[in-house]
User: Fold this.
Amino acid sequence: MQGFRSFVWTAVSYQLKDELKLSPSASQLVFSVAFFPWSIKPVYGILSDCIPIRGQKRVPYLVISTILSLLPWLILGLKESLRSSSGPLMFLLTAQNLGSAMADVVVDAMIAEAVRSERAAFAGDLQSVSWSAMALGGICGSLLGGYALTNLQIDRIFLLFSVLPAMQLLSCGLVEESTLGNKALPDLANSISSHLGDQNGLVPEKDVSKEVPSRNNSMRRKKSQKNNKARTVITIKSEAVEKKRPLVMQWFYSLKAAFYSLCKAFKQPVILRPMTWFFLAHITIPNLSTVMFYYQTEFLNLDPSFLGTARVVGWLGLMFGTFIYNRYLKHMKLRRILTWAQLGLATLSILDIVLVSRYHIEFGISDKLMVLCGSALADAINQLKFMPFLILSGQLCPPGIEGTLFALFMSINNLGSTIGSFVGAGLASLLNVSSGSFDNLLLGIVIQVVCTFIPIVFLFLIPKEATGLAS
Assistant:
Protein backbone atom coordinates (compact mmCIF):
# COMPACT_ATOMS: atom_id res chain seq x y z
CA MET A 1 0.00 0.00 0.00
CA GLN A 2 2.68 2.54 0.98
CA GLY A 3 4.85 1.88 -2.05
CA PHE A 4 1.99 1.70 -4.57
CA ARG A 5 0.79 5.18 -3.55
CA SER A 6 3.05 6.54 -6.31
CA PHE A 7 0.47 5.17 -8.76
CA VAL A 8 -2.20 7.66 -7.69
CA TRP A 9 -0.14 10.61 -6.45
CA THR A 10 1.33 11.12 -9.90
CA ALA A 11 -2.25 11.58 -11.09
CA VAL A 12 -2.82 14.11 -8.28
CA SER A 13 0.14 16.14 -9.56
CA TYR A 14 -1.38 16.30 -13.03
CA GLN A 15 -4.81 17.13 -11.60
CA LEU A 16 -3.38 20.17 -9.80
CA LYS A 17 -1.40 21.28 -12.84
CA ASP A 18 -3.71 20.59 -15.77
CA GLU A 19 -7.25 20.69 -14.34
CA LEU A 20 -6.97 23.22 -11.53
CA LYS A 21 -4.30 25.29 -13.36
CA LEU A 22 -2.41 25.94 -10.12
CA SER A 23 1.00 27.58 -10.16
CA PRO A 24 4.02 25.53 -9.02
CA SER A 25 4.12 27.32 -5.66
CA ALA A 26 0.37 26.86 -5.07
CA SER A 27 0.58 23.19 -6.06
CA GLN A 28 3.48 22.61 -3.69
CA LEU A 29 1.52 24.36 -0.93
CA VAL A 30 -1.37 21.92 -1.45
CA PHE A 31 1.00 18.97 -1.17
CA SER A 32 2.61 20.41 1.97
CA VAL A 33 -0.74 20.77 3.72
CA ALA A 34 -2.01 17.39 2.50
CA PHE A 35 1.04 15.54 3.85
CA PHE A 36 1.00 17.24 7.26
CA PRO A 37 -0.70 14.22 8.96
CA TRP A 38 2.58 12.35 8.52
CA SER A 39 4.17 14.88 10.89
CA ILE A 40 2.03 13.90 13.91
CA LYS A 41 2.49 10.12 13.87
CA PRO A 42 3.17 9.85 17.65
CA VAL A 43 -0.42 10.97 18.28
CA TYR A 44 -1.73 7.88 16.49
CA GLY A 45 0.74 5.64 18.31
CA ILE A 46 -0.21 6.99 21.73
CA LEU A 47 -3.93 6.72 20.97
CA SER A 48 -3.67 3.10 19.87
CA ASP A 49 -1.44 2.24 22.83
CA CYS A 50 -3.51 3.98 25.50
CA ILE A 51 -7.12 3.73 24.33
CA PRO A 52 -8.11 0.21 23.23
CA ILE A 53 -11.39 -0.10 21.33
CA ARG A 54 -13.47 -3.05 22.54
CA GLY A 55 -10.34 -4.34 24.26
CA GLN A 56 -8.14 -4.27 21.12
CA LYS A 57 -5.31 -1.84 20.34
CA ARG A 58 -4.44 -2.59 16.71
CA VAL A 59 -7.22 -4.01 14.53
CA PRO A 60 -9.87 -1.32 15.25
CA TYR A 61 -7.42 1.47 14.49
CA LEU A 62 -6.30 -0.36 11.35
CA VAL A 63 -9.94 -0.54 10.23
CA ILE A 64 -10.51 3.18 10.96
CA SER A 65 -7.33 4.21 9.15
CA THR A 66 -8.14 2.01 6.14
CA ILE A 67 -11.62 3.55 5.83
CA LEU A 68 -10.00 7.01 5.92
CA SER A 69 -7.64 5.86 3.17
CA LEU A 70 -10.46 4.44 1.05
CA LEU A 71 -13.28 7.00 1.15
CA PRO A 72 -11.40 10.05 -0.22
CA TRP A 73 -10.39 8.23 -3.41
CA LEU A 74 -13.96 7.01 -3.94
CA ILE A 75 -15.34 10.52 -3.42
CA LEU A 76 -12.75 12.11 -5.70
CA GLY A 77 -13.40 9.50 -8.36
CA LEU A 78 -17.17 9.96 -8.29
CA LYS A 79 -17.54 13.73 -7.63
CA GLU A 80 -16.00 15.88 -10.33
CA SER A 81 -16.91 19.11 -8.50
CA LEU A 82 -14.84 18.11 -5.48
CA ARG A 83 -11.71 17.12 -7.39
CA SER A 84 -11.97 20.28 -9.52
CA SER A 85 -11.84 22.65 -6.53
CA SER A 86 -8.59 23.19 -4.65
CA GLY A 87 -10.20 23.51 -1.20
CA PRO A 88 -12.24 20.25 -1.12
CA LEU A 89 -9.44 18.43 -2.94
CA MET A 90 -6.86 19.48 -0.36
CA PHE A 91 -9.21 18.50 2.49
CA LEU A 92 -9.83 15.02 1.04
CA LEU A 93 -6.13 14.48 0.32
CA THR A 94 -5.32 15.46 3.91
CA ALA A 95 -7.93 12.99 5.22
CA GLN A 96 -6.45 10.29 3.00
CA ASN A 97 -2.95 10.95 4.33
CA LEU A 98 -4.33 10.88 7.87
CA GLY A 99 -5.57 7.35 7.24
CA SER A 100 -2.35 6.27 5.54
CA ALA A 101 -0.14 7.68 8.31
CA MET A 102 -2.26 6.07 11.03
CA ALA A 103 -2.15 2.72 9.23
CA ASP A 104 1.62 3.07 8.90
CA VAL A 105 1.99 3.55 12.67
CA VAL A 106 -0.34 0.65 13.48
CA VAL A 107 1.44 -1.71 11.08
CA ASP A 108 4.83 -0.65 12.49
CA ALA A 109 3.54 -1.50 15.97
CA MET A 110 2.26 -4.88 14.77
CA ILE A 111 5.64 -5.63 13.16
CA ALA A 112 7.41 -4.64 16.39
CA GLU A 113 5.15 -6.96 18.39
CA ALA A 114 5.75 -9.80 15.92
CA VAL A 115 9.51 -9.25 16.15
CA ARG A 116 9.32 -9.31 19.94
CA SER A 117 7.30 -12.52 19.97
CA GLU A 118 9.66 -14.24 17.53
CA ARG A 119 12.79 -13.00 19.32
CA ALA A 120 15.81 -11.59 17.49
CA ALA A 121 16.22 -14.46 15.01
CA PHE A 122 13.24 -13.38 12.91
CA ALA A 123 13.57 -9.62 13.39
CA GLY A 124 15.89 -8.87 10.47
CA ASP A 125 13.90 -11.05 8.07
CA LEU A 126 10.60 -9.38 8.94
CA GLN A 127 11.98 -5.87 8.54
CA SER A 128 13.59 -6.85 5.23
CA VAL A 129 10.28 -8.25 3.99
CA SER A 130 8.53 -5.01 5.00
CA TRP A 131 11.01 -2.76 3.18
CA SER A 132 11.14 -5.05 0.14
CA ALA A 133 7.34 -5.06 -0.11
CA MET A 134 7.28 -1.25 -0.05
CA ALA A 135 10.01 -1.05 -2.71
CA LEU A 136 8.19 -3.56 -4.91
CA GLY A 137 4.97 -1.59 -4.52
CA GLY A 138 6.80 1.61 -5.43
CA ILE A 139 8.25 0.10 -8.59
CA CYS A 140 4.90 -1.35 -9.71
CA GLY A 141 3.00 1.83 -8.79
CA SER A 142 5.42 4.06 -10.72
CA LEU A 143 5.35 1.88 -13.83
CA LEU A 144 1.59 1.42 -13.88
CA GLY A 145 0.94 5.03 -12.85
CA GLY A 146 2.68 6.42 -15.92
CA TYR A 147 0.84 3.95 -18.17
CA ALA A 148 -2.52 4.74 -16.54
CA LEU A 149 -2.10 8.50 -17.02
CA THR A 150 -1.50 7.93 -20.72
CA ASN A 151 -4.54 5.70 -21.22
CA LEU A 152 -7.10 6.51 -18.49
CA GLN A 153 -8.98 9.51 -17.15
CA ILE A 154 -7.92 10.75 -13.73
CA ASP A 155 -11.26 9.84 -12.15
CA ARG A 156 -10.80 6.24 -13.30
CA ILE A 157 -7.32 6.22 -11.76
CA PHE A 158 -8.72 7.35 -8.38
CA LEU A 159 -11.40 4.66 -8.48
CA LEU A 160 -8.93 2.01 -9.62
CA PHE A 161 -6.54 2.78 -6.77
CA SER A 162 -9.38 2.55 -4.23
CA VAL A 163 -9.38 -1.20 -4.86
CA LEU A 164 -6.18 -1.53 -2.80
CA PRO A 165 -7.48 0.04 0.46
CA ALA A 166 -10.69 -1.97 -0.08
CA MET A 167 -8.59 -5.15 -0.14
CA GLN A 168 -6.74 -3.94 2.93
CA LEU A 169 -10.06 -3.37 4.69
CA LEU A 170 -11.11 -6.94 3.93
CA SER A 171 -7.76 -8.26 5.14
CA CYS A 172 -8.33 -6.63 8.54
CA GLY A 173 -10.75 -9.49 9.24
CA LEU A 174 -7.86 -11.93 8.94
CA VAL A 175 -5.78 -10.24 11.64
CA GLU A 176 -6.02 -11.93 15.02
CA GLU A 177 -5.61 -9.91 18.18
CA SER A 178 -6.29 -10.89 21.76
CA THR A 179 -8.68 -8.81 23.86
CA LEU A 180 -6.84 -6.93 26.59
CA GLY A 181 -9.58 -5.54 28.77
CA ASN A 182 -9.56 -2.22 30.57
CA LYS A 183 -6.94 -3.27 33.09
CA ALA A 184 -4.30 -2.90 30.41
CA LEU A 185 -4.68 0.85 30.45
CA PRO A 186 -3.10 1.65 33.83
CA ASP A 187 -0.52 -1.10 33.29
CA LEU A 188 0.56 0.55 30.08
CA ALA A 189 0.87 3.97 31.66
CA ASN A 190 2.88 2.54 34.55
CA SER A 191 5.17 0.53 32.28
CA ILE A 192 5.89 3.53 30.06
CA SER A 193 6.58 5.94 32.89
CA SER A 194 8.61 3.44 34.94
CA HIS A 195 11.29 3.26 32.27
CA LEU A 196 11.84 6.98 32.52
CA GLY A 197 11.55 7.41 36.25
CA ASP A 198 15.31 7.94 36.56
CA GLN A 199 17.02 10.87 34.89
CA ASN A 200 19.90 8.55 33.99
CA GLY A 201 17.66 5.92 32.46
CA LEU A 202 18.55 6.87 28.90
CA VAL A 203 22.32 6.56 29.25
CA PRO A 204 23.99 3.30 30.36
CA GLU A 205 25.57 3.79 33.72
CA LYS A 206 29.23 2.99 34.20
CA ASP A 207 29.92 -0.29 35.96
CA VAL A 208 31.46 0.71 39.28
CA SER A 209 31.24 -2.65 41.04
CA LYS A 210 35.04 -3.01 40.97
CA GLU A 211 35.69 0.45 42.30
CA VAL A 212 33.85 0.26 45.62
CA PRO A 213 34.20 -2.09 48.60
CA SER A 214 32.03 -5.18 48.66
CA ARG A 215 30.38 -4.07 51.91
CA ASN A 216 29.03 -0.98 50.19
CA ASN A 217 27.70 -3.19 47.41
CA SER A 218 25.94 -5.38 49.96
CA MET A 219 24.37 -2.37 51.65
CA ARG A 220 23.34 -1.00 48.27
CA ARG A 221 21.68 -4.30 47.34
CA LYS A 222 19.72 -4.37 50.59
CA LYS A 223 18.62 -0.81 50.07
CA SER A 224 17.61 -1.61 46.50
CA GLN A 225 15.55 -4.60 47.68
CA LYS A 226 13.71 -2.40 50.17
CA ASN A 227 13.04 0.18 47.48
CA ASN A 228 11.75 -2.54 45.13
CA LYS A 229 9.36 -3.79 47.80
CA ALA A 230 8.16 -0.25 48.44
CA ARG A 231 7.63 0.34 44.72
CA THR A 232 5.70 -2.94 44.47
CA VAL A 233 3.35 -1.88 47.26
CA ILE A 234 2.86 1.53 45.64
CA THR A 235 2.18 -0.10 42.25
CA ILE A 236 -0.44 -2.45 43.75
CA LYS A 237 -2.13 0.45 45.50
CA SER A 238 -2.07 2.59 42.35
CA GLU A 239 -3.59 -0.25 40.33
CA ALA A 240 -6.38 -0.57 42.91
CA VAL A 241 -7.05 3.15 42.64
CA GLU A 242 -7.01 2.94 38.83
CA LYS A 243 -9.64 0.18 38.81
CA LYS A 244 -12.04 2.42 40.76
CA ARG A 245 -11.72 5.25 38.23
CA PRO A 246 -14.17 5.62 35.32
CA LEU A 247 -12.97 4.39 31.95
CA VAL A 248 -12.67 7.92 30.56
CA MET A 249 -10.45 8.93 33.48
CA GLN A 250 -8.29 5.86 32.89
CA TRP A 251 -7.86 6.95 29.28
CA PHE A 252 -6.96 10.46 30.41
CA TYR A 253 -4.30 9.30 32.89
CA SER A 254 -2.86 6.84 30.36
CA LEU A 255 -2.58 9.56 27.72
CA LYS A 256 -1.12 11.97 30.26
CA ALA A 257 1.52 9.45 31.36
CA ALA A 258 2.41 8.58 27.75
CA PHE A 259 2.80 12.24 26.70
CA TYR A 260 4.82 13.01 29.83
CA SER A 261 7.14 10.07 29.26
CA LEU A 262 7.59 10.97 25.61
CA CYS A 263 8.45 14.60 26.39
CA LYS A 264 10.78 13.59 29.21
CA ALA A 265 12.67 11.20 26.95
CA PHE A 266 12.90 13.65 24.08
CA LYS A 267 14.33 16.42 26.29
CA GLN A 268 17.48 14.38 26.91
CA PRO A 269 20.42 16.02 25.04
CA VAL A 270 21.53 12.66 23.62
CA ILE A 271 18.19 12.51 21.76
CA LEU A 272 17.38 16.19 21.23
CA ARG A 273 20.67 17.20 19.56
CA PRO A 274 20.78 14.61 16.72
CA MET A 275 17.08 15.03 15.97
CA THR A 276 17.63 18.79 15.79
CA TRP A 277 20.25 18.22 13.10
CA PHE A 278 17.98 16.05 10.94
CA PHE A 279 15.22 18.64 11.30
CA LEU A 280 17.54 21.49 10.31
CA ALA A 281 18.84 19.45 7.37
CA HIS A 282 15.33 19.59 5.90
CA ILE A 283 14.12 23.10 6.70
CA THR A 284 17.32 24.87 5.58
CA ILE A 285 17.08 23.46 2.03
CA PRO A 286 14.20 24.69 -0.17
CA ASN A 287 12.34 21.78 -1.75
CA LEU A 288 11.72 22.56 -5.42
CA SER A 289 10.49 19.12 -6.48
CA THR A 290 7.05 20.34 -7.57
CA VAL A 291 8.58 23.23 -9.52
CA MET A 292 10.88 20.76 -11.30
CA PHE A 293 7.84 18.59 -12.10
CA TYR A 294 6.21 21.56 -13.84
CA TYR A 295 9.46 22.31 -15.69
CA GLN A 296 9.85 18.70 -16.85
CA THR A 297 6.26 18.39 -18.08
CA GLU A 298 5.71 21.86 -19.56
CA PHE A 299 9.12 23.00 -20.79
CA LEU A 300 10.83 19.67 -21.49
CA ASN A 301 7.52 18.04 -22.55
CA LEU A 302 8.31 14.75 -20.83
CA ASP A 303 5.33 12.37 -20.96
CA PRO A 304 3.78 10.64 -17.91
CA SER A 305 5.04 7.18 -18.86
CA PHE A 306 8.65 8.42 -18.88
CA LEU A 307 8.23 10.16 -15.51
CA GLY A 308 6.87 6.89 -14.14
CA THR A 309 10.00 5.15 -15.43
CA ALA A 310 12.15 7.83 -13.79
CA ARG A 311 10.49 7.10 -10.45
CA VAL A 312 11.19 3.39 -10.93
CA VAL A 313 14.85 4.25 -11.42
CA GLY A 314 14.60 6.29 -8.23
CA TRP A 315 13.24 3.29 -6.30
CA LEU A 316 16.08 1.16 -7.65
CA GLY A 317 18.50 3.87 -6.59
CA LEU A 318 16.99 3.77 -3.10
CA MET A 319 17.52 0.01 -2.92
CA PHE A 320 21.07 0.43 -4.25
CA GLY A 321 21.78 3.07 -1.61
CA THR A 322 20.59 0.69 1.10
CA PHE A 323 22.91 -2.03 -0.23
CA ILE A 324 25.91 0.31 -0.40
CA TYR A 325 25.28 1.54 3.13
CA ASN A 326 24.94 -1.92 4.65
CA ARG A 327 27.93 -3.26 2.73
CA TYR A 328 30.48 -0.48 3.00
CA LEU A 329 29.41 2.43 5.20
CA LYS A 330 27.86 1.09 8.40
CA HIS A 331 31.20 1.14 10.25
CA MET A 332 31.94 4.72 9.20
CA LYS A 333 31.42 7.68 11.55
CA LEU A 334 27.99 9.27 11.10
CA ARG A 335 29.41 12.76 10.78
CA ARG A 336 31.52 11.65 7.83
CA ILE A 337 28.61 9.83 6.16
CA LEU A 338 26.31 12.83 6.50
CA THR A 339 29.00 15.22 5.25
CA TRP A 340 29.51 13.20 2.08
CA ALA A 341 25.75 12.84 1.65
CA GLN A 342 25.27 16.63 1.73
CA LEU A 343 28.13 17.12 -0.71
CA GLY A 344 26.58 14.50 -3.00
CA LEU A 345 23.20 16.24 -2.91
CA ALA A 346 24.88 19.55 -3.74
CA THR A 347 26.60 17.91 -6.73
CA LEU A 348 23.30 16.51 -7.99
CA SER A 349 21.71 19.93 -7.67
CA ILE A 350 24.43 21.13 -10.04
CA LEU A 351 23.05 18.57 -12.53
CA ASP A 352 19.71 20.41 -12.25
CA ILE A 353 21.56 23.65 -13.01
CA VAL A 354 22.99 22.04 -16.15
CA LEU A 355 19.52 20.75 -17.09
CA VAL A 356 17.83 24.13 -16.71
CA SER A 357 20.67 26.08 -18.37
CA ARG A 358 20.60 23.59 -21.29
CA TYR A 359 24.41 23.17 -21.37
CA HIS A 360 24.06 19.40 -21.82
CA ILE A 361 22.56 19.87 -25.28
CA GLU A 362 25.95 21.04 -26.56
CA PHE A 363 27.42 17.64 -25.65
CA GLY A 364 24.58 15.64 -27.18
CA ILE A 365 23.13 14.51 -23.83
CA SER A 366 19.35 14.15 -23.88
CA ASP A 367 16.97 15.63 -21.31
CA LYS A 368 15.66 12.16 -20.45
CA LEU A 369 19.12 10.85 -19.58
CA MET A 370 19.75 13.85 -17.32
CA VAL A 371 16.44 13.34 -15.50
CA LEU A 372 16.98 9.58 -15.12
CA CYS A 373 20.49 9.99 -13.71
CA GLY A 374 19.46 12.77 -11.37
CA SER A 375 16.45 10.83 -10.05
CA ALA A 376 18.33 7.60 -9.39
CA LEU A 377 21.39 9.21 -7.82
CA ALA A 378 19.36 11.63 -5.68
CA ASP A 379 17.24 8.83 -4.20
CA ALA A 380 20.35 6.69 -3.59
CA ILE A 381 22.11 9.51 -1.74
CA ASN A 382 18.99 10.42 0.22
CA GLN A 383 18.82 6.79 1.34
CA LEU A 384 22.46 6.96 2.48
CA LYS A 385 21.41 9.99 4.52
CA PHE A 386 18.24 8.34 5.83
CA MET A 387 19.86 5.07 6.97
CA PRO A 388 21.96 6.79 9.68
CA PHE A 389 18.74 8.46 10.83
CA LEU A 390 17.11 5.04 11.26
CA ILE A 391 20.17 3.55 12.97
CA LEU A 392 20.66 6.50 15.32
CA SER A 393 16.95 6.53 16.16
CA GLY A 394 17.16 2.86 17.12
CA GLN A 395 20.18 3.52 19.32
CA LEU A 396 18.56 6.47 21.09
CA CYS A 397 15.17 4.90 21.86
CA PRO A 398 15.02 3.92 25.55
CA PRO A 399 13.35 0.61 26.45
CA GLY A 400 9.61 0.69 26.93
CA ILE A 401 8.67 3.49 24.53
CA GLU A 402 10.61 2.44 21.41
CA GLY A 403 7.59 2.49 19.10
CA THR A 404 6.16 5.85 20.16
CA LEU A 405 9.53 7.60 20.34
CA PHE A 406 10.55 6.20 16.95
CA ALA A 407 7.26 7.51 15.54
CA LEU A 408 8.21 10.91 16.99
CA PHE A 409 11.58 10.74 15.24
CA MET A 410 9.89 9.91 11.93
CA SER A 411 7.40 12.74 12.48
CA ILE A 412 10.24 15.20 13.01
CA ASN A 413 11.74 14.00 9.74
CA ASN A 414 8.37 14.36 7.96
CA LEU A 415 7.68 17.76 9.52
CA GLY A 416 11.09 18.97 8.36
CA SER A 417 10.27 17.80 4.83
CA THR A 418 6.90 19.58 4.99
CA ILE A 419 8.48 22.84 6.13
CA GLY A 420 11.15 22.44 3.43
CA SER A 421 8.32 22.21 0.89
CA PHE A 422 6.75 25.38 2.32
CA VAL A 423 10.14 27.12 2.00
CA GLY A 424 10.45 25.89 -1.59
CA ALA A 425 6.95 27.13 -2.41
CA GLY A 426 7.79 30.51 -0.90
CA LEU A 427 11.03 30.71 -2.87
CA ALA A 428 9.22 29.87 -6.13
CA SER A 429 6.61 32.53 -5.41
CA LEU A 430 9.29 35.10 -4.52
CA LEU A 431 11.13 34.42 -7.79
CA ASN A 432 7.87 34.53 -9.78
CA VAL A 433 8.38 31.01 -11.10
CA SER A 434 5.04 29.95 -12.51
CA SER A 435 3.54 27.65 -15.09
CA GLY A 436 5.10 28.61 -18.42
CA SER A 437 7.51 31.09 -16.80
CA PHE A 438 10.75 29.49 -15.66
CA ASP A 439 13.15 32.38 -16.24
CA ASN A 440 14.21 32.54 -12.56
CA LEU A 441 14.24 28.78 -11.94
CA LEU A 442 18.00 28.69 -12.45
CA LEU A 443 18.47 31.23 -9.65
CA GLY A 444 16.22 29.15 -7.39
CA ILE A 445 18.32 26.03 -7.97
CA VAL A 446 21.54 27.98 -7.28
CA ILE A 447 20.04 29.10 -3.94
CA GLN A 448 19.13 25.47 -3.24
CA VAL A 449 22.72 24.37 -3.92
CA VAL A 450 24.10 26.99 -1.53
CA CYS A 451 21.62 25.98 1.18
CA THR A 452 22.66 22.33 0.86
CA PHE A 453 25.94 23.19 2.60
CA ILE A 454 24.22 24.73 5.64
CA PRO A 455 23.52 21.41 7.49
CA ILE A 456 27.26 20.61 7.43
CA VAL A 457 27.80 23.56 9.79
CA PHE A 458 25.50 21.93 12.38
CA LEU A 459 27.10 18.46 12.35
CA PHE A 460 28.48 19.11 15.83
CA LEU A 461 25.01 18.09 17.04
CA ILE A 462 25.67 14.48 15.95
CA PRO A 463 27.54 12.38 18.57
CA LYS A 464 31.20 12.43 17.63
CA GLU A 465 31.85 8.71 18.04
CA ALA A 466 28.54 7.48 16.63
CA THR A 467 28.82 5.11 13.68
CA GLY A 468 26.31 3.70 11.24
CA LEU A 469 26.25 0.35 13.06
CA ALA A 470 23.57 -0.22 15.69
CA SER A 471 25.05 -1.02 19.07
